[in-house]
């Protein structure tokens, strides 16, 4: 009987240790999820932030979709990372190089045909100029490329929110309104 009681105690101790390990792993996964990398793009600010949890790692200027081809707001994930991509356009193919509209890197999103990429037109950065993708300066997209992985989340936000103001600041919106007001008075 004593041996049977000892065996039951051993089993209970083993079960308790398995449960402790499972709880510790779950807590570690929750902590990792809370500090996971993700990208936030403010379409109205034309800026991208790489985040780790709630901490801004870096902010980059971007170009976003032109009025005729707006950037689609929504929640997506990184599904592909390509170095020196080939651009396939209507009736033409552009190999990697200085004339490639995608620049040196492509970070494909879970929305087919959309991504974050470099550009052969750096003057478009800061404007609504793309066909819906997020364009970055080539050196910036190379840096971002090294910080992201397949599976990272990407938020494309179409309206200015208090959360965006915390990430990107309030001066961008003020400058945008000031510039618009000045241009309206010049008309």
Short description:
The chain is α/β, with parallel strands linked by helices and 187 residues long.
SSE blueprint and pairings:
Elements (H helix, E strand, L loop, with lengths): L1 H33 L2 E6 L4 E6 L2 E7 L2 E2 L8 E10 L3 E3 L2 E3 L10 E5 L5 E3 L10 E3 L3 E2 L2 H10 L5 E5 L4 H7 L2 H16 L1
Mind explaining what this structure looks like?
The chain has 187 residues and is an alpha/beta fold. It has one domain (37-178): Beta Barrel (L,D-transpeptidase catalytic domain-like). The chain has 4 helices and 12 strands. It has helices spanning 2-34, 138-147, 162-168, 171-186, and strands at 37-42, 47-52, 55-61, 64-65, 74-83, 87-89, 92-94, 105-109, 115-117, 128-130, 134-135, 153-157. The strands form 3 sheets. It has an 8-stranded mixed beta sheet, sandwiched between helices. A hairpin with a 2-residue loop joins β2 and β3. The longest helix is centred in the N-terminal third of the chain and has 33 residues, at 2-34. The termini are far apart.
Per CATH, the architecture is Beta Barrel
Shape: elongated
CATH class designation: Mainly Beta
Q: What is the beta-strand fraction?
A: 25-35%
First-to-last CA distance: 98 Å
Rg from C-alpha positions?
A: 24 Å
Uncertain stretches of 5 or more adjacent residues: 20-24, 26-34, 172-187
Helix content: 25-40%
Keywords:
187 residues; alpha/beta; L,D-transpeptidase catalytic domain-like; eight-stranded mixed β-sheet; two-stranded parallel ribbon; 4 helices; elongated; disordered C terminus
